[in-house]
């Protein structure tokens, strides 16, 4: 005897399951229960140990840029320059502290599996029923189930009476699943079709039943999915990969330039002390100290912006990854759809109408149909704070609500026609019936599956009254039912009989009244968001546990299906190899009956083709896929704790359009990261070229290491931080997604970095020749500060309002200029940085040369925008 999820228990008859488990209809004896508890352990999930703070700290230190700074600080300390070493160390500590604090907060999340534990269970031990702690259940225990109860373990049903179970969190099914103990099923059925089984952490919606436990703890389906999610590692984000590549390139550049300058100095006879000092200055110049800090802060700014748009971020680097997303995989129920059944269509004999705004006074047949819908019903409806509050099966509550809004109040109808007998809906009968006393006689009202109800009908209610229902008319009604179902509607037939005898024989000789179509309608603004994604080059893929016909209808209604696209059923997907799936994945717009393993394969297939995949989910069955995707997105209101634990982002309002806002923010964040990387690299390249140019010209180092560090902290960091909050381009969601393999600095951007770096270096070297070290120091500072305008996207001629939209950039520039002026005004600071006061002529040199790169850059930007200006005027 073993307990393993999905091992075919659903296909075995009840007596054979009991025999395999060495159990009986009277349950286990106390001694046998004790032996099994010792063998299998408690019915609980294994706890995942939290990530330690030391491991998080170590992750922050595994960074090439950090490594370069550590090396520079070590060289400064060994060469007897503790001031430089302390300054570099301060920058390191600041960067690591910000990243560590953010990551630590994100890792301290709730233990999701534990939150799914079920407290109590009713179990049969030694022939007697008793209430026990659900953790004490073992394979072979016989348990009792009833409406409202959470299922405490995986169990094969022994008995089931009108039993329906909500399995949406496990299977993705939008409707409760009907359960039968005596069904004959094949072993290869997917989980949503295993009607003889109930699973841990699902909820009984109606009816009652008994079952024998076949799986507990981690051997349940929920436990298996939890283990599957735990085995999936979060992939590194595109930004993490890009910054790592940039860091390696920086190391190569720094080492190469240092070797070249050292060789030139050695050839000229420079002392070892001067060579070490130059090497430290070059290391500081080559490394943009502000890059990790500004990158972290830029994403933190994005986190704040997303929080205002109802998105909570659990992993900081994933903020930027959203901007790279090329595929968004999403579940259906409650995400693309409203997550609740609504009666939307009423089909009478001659015409069809929408139920929105309909009243019982519009047509006598509407009053009859809605009376049937309200009375042949097991749900309840009440008013609270001016709103309808429904309890019961989603289909019944949808019918009650439609009837109430049209004026057919159930309580009033019951007072007028008291119920004398009812026949609840069952998966065997496929209908529900209710007998009511109206005057001296009894009337029967029936609702159910169209094929089953029409079998008992021999008449039809028309505009001219009740007419016979010949075979041709019956077939026409069945075709109407098929047409409604093809539109993604769940169709019920409404029928009646007057007078009725009050027994089961009344289910023949019925009068067909109407079809009612129910749907889980699209959630607000989903179609618009899907269209926005399409314009942005992002493909939306639906993955649902619903039937293929429903999936296809919803996908078509939401605009997911484009010419050439298809819908793939879970069984067909399971028969495909990974290679076949990769070949087909780009043309599949929706997947039906998808298992947790299938979701992993779908995401992996997209990733293998170079896509950056976001996954939206809310159920236990989504947890592994959320973790495997590049961006896992869970629902905050209805999402299970396991889904939230596995996700990177949480949507507080559960609205699909909110992920659209998050993607937009992600794109803006990456654009801003690219802007400040461009700014920092061009400034740092200028510093390197200053040393290289001076060395080639036979001059001593123009700047001291501490002066370079001051420039990187003051003139780089504050302006770069301002670029992190640059307003987004209004056209950001009309552009295709970036290639995830594309470097942060593309070819044209690298050329611009080289041009501006050379230009800033040239004016600095010119200032050094004209006025010495202080003049070069001030010129380089001013050129870098004013270079901020070149890094921004706004053209001051084409869009003057956007040029002033980022007040932080203007404030940062003024702050940096003010701090730079302090270096020649405040004596202690001037002494530390070894600068001297400047004359009026030297200030003219500084201002003239320092402003030149910015003036040339703005002029070039205005020339590039000429075609756009001409187009806007025309």
A few lines on this structure:
This protein is of the alpha+beta class and 874 residues long.
- In DSSP terms (H or I, runs of 4 or more residues), the helix count works out at 34
Cα distance, first to last residue? 81 Å
Spans of at least 5 consecutive residues whose pLDDT stays below 50 are 106-118
User: What is the 3D form?
Assistant: elongated
What's the total number of strands? 26
Strand proportion = 15-25%
Largest sheet: 9 strands, mixed
Helix content: 40-55%
SSE layout:
Blueprint: H1 14-20, H2 30-40, H3 53-61, H4 64-78, H5 82-107, H6 112-115, E1 120-125, E2 128-133, E3 142-146, E4 154-166, H7 168-171, E5 177-178, E6 197-198, E7 203-215, H8 221-230, H9 238-268, H10 272-286, H11 290-308, E8 311-313, H12 318-321, E9 327-330, E10 342-347, E11 352-354, H13 364-375, E12 380-384, E13 387-391, H14 394-406, H15 410-416, E14 419-423, E15 431-438, E16 441-448, H16 450-455, E17 457-462, E18 465-468, H17 471-486, E19 490-497, E20 510-519, H18 526-535, E21 539-543, H19 548-557, E22 566-569, H20 570-575, H21 578-584, E23 588-592, H22 596-608, E24 613-617, H23 623-628, E25 631-635, H24 641-646, E26 649-651, H25 656-696, H26 705-724, H27 747-771, H28 773-786, H29 788-791, H30 800-803, H31 807-825, H32 827-833, H33 840-864, H34 866-873
Parallel strand pairs: 9-21, 9-24, 17-20, 21-23, 22-23, 24-25, 25-26
Antiparallel strand pairs: 1-2, 1-3, 3-7, 4-5, 4-6, 4-7, 8-26, 10-11, 10-20, 12-13, 14-15, 15-16, 16-19, 17-18, 19-20
């Amino acid at each position: 005897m073993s307990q393993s999820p999905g091992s075919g228990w659903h296909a075995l008859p009840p007596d054979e399951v009991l025999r395999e488990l060495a159990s009986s209809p009277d349950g286990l004896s106390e001694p046998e229960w004790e032996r099994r508890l010792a063998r299998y352990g408690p019915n609980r999930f294994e706890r995942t140990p939290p990530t330690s703070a030391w491991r998080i700290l170590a992750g922050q230190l595994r960074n090439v840029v950090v490594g370069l700074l550590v090396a520079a600080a070590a060289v400064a300390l060994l060469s007897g320059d503790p001031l430089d070493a302390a300054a570099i160390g301060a920058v390191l500590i600041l960067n690591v502290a910000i990243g560590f604090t953010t990551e630590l907060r994100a890792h301290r999340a709730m233990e999701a599996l534990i939150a799914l534990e079920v407290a109590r269970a009713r179990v049969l031990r030694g022939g007697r029923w008793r209430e026990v702690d659900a953790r004490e259940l073992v394979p072979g225990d016989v348990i009792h189930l009833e409406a409202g109860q959470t299922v405490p373990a995986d169990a094969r049903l022994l008995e089931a009476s009108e039993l329906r179970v909500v399995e949406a969190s496990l299977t993705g099914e939008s409707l409760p699943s009907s359960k039968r103990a005596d069904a004959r099923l094949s072993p290869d059925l997917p989980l949503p079709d295993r009607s003889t089984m109930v699973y841990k952490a699902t909820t009984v919606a109606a009816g009652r039943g008994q079952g024998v436990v076949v799986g507990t703890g981690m051997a349940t389906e929920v436990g298996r999915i939890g283990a599957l999610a735990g085995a999936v590692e979060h992939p590194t984000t595109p930004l993490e990969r890009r910054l790592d590549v940039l860091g390696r390139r920086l190391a190569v550049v720094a080492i190469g330039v240092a070797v070249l300058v050292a060789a030139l100095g050695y050839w000229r006879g420079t002392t070892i002390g001067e060579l070490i000092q130059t090497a430290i200055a070059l290391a500081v110049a080559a490394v943009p100290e502000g890059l990790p800090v500004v990158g972290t802060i830029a994403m933190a700014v994005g986190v704040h912006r997303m929080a205002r748009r109802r998105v909570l971020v659990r992993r900081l680097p994933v903020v930027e990854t959203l901007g790279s997303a090329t595929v968004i995989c999403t579940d259906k129920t409650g995400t693309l759809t409203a997550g609740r059944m609504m009666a939307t269509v009423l089909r009478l004999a001659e015409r069809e109408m929408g139920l929105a705004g309909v009243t019982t006074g519009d047509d006598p047949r509407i009053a009859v149909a809605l009376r049937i819908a309200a009375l042949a019903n097991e749900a309840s409806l009440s008013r609270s704070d001016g709103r309808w509050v429904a309890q019961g099966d989603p289909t019944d509550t949808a019918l009650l609500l439609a009837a109430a809004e049209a004026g057919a109040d159930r309580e009033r109808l019951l007072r007028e026609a008291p119920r004398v007998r009812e026949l609840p809906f069952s998966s065997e009968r496929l209908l529900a019936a209710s007998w009511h006393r109206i005057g001296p006689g009894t009337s029967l009202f029936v609702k159910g599956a169209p094929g089953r109800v029409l079998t008992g009908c021999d008449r039809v209610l028309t505009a001219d009254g009740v007419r016979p229902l010949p075979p041709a008319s019956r077939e026409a009604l069945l075709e109407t039912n098929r047409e409604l179902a093809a539109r993604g509607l769940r169709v019920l037939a409404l029928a009646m009989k007057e007078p009725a005898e009050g027994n089961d024989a009344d289910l023949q000789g019925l009068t067909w009244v109407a079809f009612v179509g129910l749907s889980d309608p699209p959630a607000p603004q989903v179609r618009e968001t899907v269209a926005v994604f399409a314009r942005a080059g992002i493909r939306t893929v639906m993955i649902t546990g619903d039937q293929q016909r429903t999936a296809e209808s919803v996908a078509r209604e939401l605009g997911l299906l484009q010419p050439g696209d298809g819908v793939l059923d879970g069984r067909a997907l399971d028969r495909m190899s990974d290679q076949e799936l990769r070949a087909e994945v780009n043309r599949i717009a929706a997947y039906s009956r998808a298992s947790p393993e299938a979701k992993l394969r779908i995401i992996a297939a997209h990733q293998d083709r170079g896509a950056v995949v976001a996954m939206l989910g809310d159920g236990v069955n989504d947890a592994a896929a959320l973790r495997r995707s590049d961006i896992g997105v869970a629902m905050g209101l209805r999402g299970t704790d396991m889904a939230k634990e596995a996700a990177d982002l949480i949507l507080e309002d559960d609205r699909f359009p909110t992920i659209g806002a998050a993607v937009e923010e992600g794109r803006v964040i990456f654009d801003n990261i690219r802007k400040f990387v461009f700014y920092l690299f061009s400034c740092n390249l200028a510093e390197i070229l200053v040393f290289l140019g001076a060395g080639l010209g036979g001059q001593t180092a123009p700047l001291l290491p501490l002066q370079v560090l001051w420039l990187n902290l003051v003139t780089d960091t504050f302006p770069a931080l301002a670029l992190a909050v640059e307003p987004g381009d209004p056209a950001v969601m009309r552009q295709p997604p970036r290639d995830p393999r594309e470097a942060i600095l593309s070819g044209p951007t690298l050329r611009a970095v080289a041009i501006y770096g050379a230009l800033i270096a040239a004016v600095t070297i010119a200032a050094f020749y004209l006025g010495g070290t202080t003049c070069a120091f001030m010129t380089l500072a001013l050129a870098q500060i004013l270079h901020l305008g070149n890094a921004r996207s706004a053209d001051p001629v084409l869009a003057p309002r956007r040029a002033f939209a980022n007040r932080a950039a203007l404030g940062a520039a003024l702050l940096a200029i003010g701090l730079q002026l302090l270096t020649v005004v405040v004596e202690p600071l001037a002494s530390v940085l070894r600068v001297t006061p400047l004359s009026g002529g030297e200030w003219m040199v500084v201002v003239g040369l320092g402003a030149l790169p910015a003036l040339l850059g703005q002029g070039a930007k205005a020339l590039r925008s000429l075609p756009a200006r001409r187009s806007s005027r025309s």
